Amino acid sequence: MKVLYVSSEALPFMASGGLADVAGSLPKALRKRLIGCRVVMPLYDGIKPELKEQMKFLTSISVPVAWRRQYCGIFEAKVDGVIYYLLDNQYYFKRDGIYGYYDDAERFAFFSRAVLEMLPHIDFKPDIIHCNDWQSALTPVYYTTMYSHWSGYENIKTVFTIHNIQYQGVYGKELIPEVLGLPEECTNIIEYDGDVNFMKGAIETANRITTVSPSYANEILDPWYSHGLDTILRERSWKLTGILNGIDTESYNPATDPDIFAHYSAEDFSAKADNKRALQELMGLPQRADVPLLGMVTRLAGHKGLDLVRAVLDEMLSTSDMQMIVLGSGEWQYEEFFKEMAAKHPDKFALKLGFVPSLSRKIYAGADLFLMPSKSEPCGLSQMIALRYGTIPIVRETGGLRDSIQDSGDGKGNGFTFASYNAHDMMNAVRRAMEGYSQKDGWQILMKRAMECDNSWGKSANEYIRLYNAVLKE
Ligand code: GLC
Question: Hey, whose CA ends up nearest to atom 6 of ligand 1?
């Protein structure tokens, strides 16, 4: 079986969020299970020079963008045995960062179509094209409406994964003639609520839709979570499943991680204390072993549950002997709030604004507790990484958080959870966690149990393979 995995970001080349982690690790896990899997993504200007140097130019083609044609260079690189195709067009991708431009719709319509146009020019004929999020949602739309009957394109099945339903690729209808170039009789596929909606088009046309946890697959059938897509998803629910993401347990390994201060494992985690001390020093907090240190690594976006944090953090810091470190960037209102907390509680609260992967690893290793109070969380990877580093997650029971973290109140779970989206329920869970932390023997047992949780890709990669096999039989 051959799978072409289509993603707008993938590690090690370019990352803005969890999708890049998945695109950088699931293909590797599929290959270990003897599935031929290659990845295709845009060739962004920001890719590090040492990675660019490893790329080999294969050929160039021209790709239709409505009534125009655009150049597309096809480059190839190999990472950990996986072949990546990087599609080059300097007009679209020679810019800073990944997203956030006025013409993102056109940039990713180009990319989604180039994926199909490239197929006759590479030595890989996929049985499955697996697309992810709105940026590659047009690939199944183009395939179904234009390419499926062309010679050389027959019998390809498409799978579409929703990593976050909040970002759907919604634009005005003028896009259809100017940018999308879909046949007129097919434009209803891409229209929704008076607009063009890329994700809705993929939901209509892909053979299967997956999302990144079983709980989220249920939640997005409900208007509270669906950002308007519940009706169409309920109609198509026969083709929707949730498969929990895994993490790259080779990269996230406290026994070998080059970014942390001292190495440790589930067998002997005494050196975790050295990580805590060094992290406190780095962040300018008093170096105390006895105080519970709470970490948070997050985009500062509303759905990450920051309203709850904002409602009670000052009270928590004022009344508890605790420390907290936040790493993240995003909405101004939250950045300002955390700056204020850092100024008001310099001995207890430290902040680093930005996306700093090496510091995030130091926080996973050095903190005792890890907070994720998300309003919605399709899967969430940080809670799994925290477990791997023996840092106990405190999470709201939603999406993948609900599927990966169980409350340890009954002496069995691996973290602390709360159900309703309520600041005092969150504070109560943090207090229970801090109380647990103060009981040293029980805490050691909990840490060991957390570190022994298996969140590697094994089980989930097998689920994807079962799904690919099922769809190929249809
Ligand atoms: C998105 C989701 C996150 C998920 C990740 C990878 O970033 O918000 O919950 O873990 O995609 O699937």
Answer: 18
